[in-house]
Amino acid sequence: MTVSYGFHATMTAQPGRGDELVGFLLASPSLAHEDCVVFLVGRSAADPDVVHVTEGWTSEETHHRFFATAEAQGLVARLQPLIAGEPEYRDEVPVGGRAAL
Amino acid sequence: MTVSYGFHATMTAQPGRGDELVGFLLASPSLAHEDCVVFLVGRSAADPDVVHVTEGWTSEETHHRFFATAEAQGLVARLQPLIAGEPEYRDEVPVGGRAAL
Hints:
The structure is a homodimer. Chain A is α+β, with helices and mostly antiparallel strands. Helices cover 27% and strands 34% of the residues of chain A. The longest helix of chain A is centred in the last third of the chain and has 10 residues. Chain A is globular. At the A-B interface, helix 1, strand 2, strand 3 and strand 5 of A face helix 1, strand 2, strand 3 and strand 5 of B. Chains A, B: Keywords: Monooxygenase, Oxidoreductase.
């Protein structure tokens, strides 16, 4: 499947809650969504509370439609207390490669 | 497979050679290497010459062993003229998720 929309987000968990944040992200329904082609969670080796997610979607529209659902908005509400400050977004659209996690 | 070593690299292609750099990265033998669990290539939506690669390896040792081979060193030599300056590395180790590219 081709990706035409994506981003790289970096979040800092509340102190000591990095594992919880990673678990939360890996339980995200995005992973099972047919239009979510890439959902890759990463962590800083130096700071276990710094967590990254790279997302790639078939289109901006499919992402935004999912993001507007009550389910997704509920996730955002549950995510907020887990992180310190706002996520930092970077302009990165996945274009190829693989992840055999 | 589990990843215990990884990084996120951002490279800027020589002007107008972003497509060539992406093609070069996607032809990398890392993609077929059994210890390379994640090799995800991404691009900036705003600047087609800015290219990212997120790598995840079973261990630092397997990565370094591959990187020391004549094959890998040949790739590095062929990569240099394609990029402007040095790659920028970020501390990111893939831990989970998927890429169905």
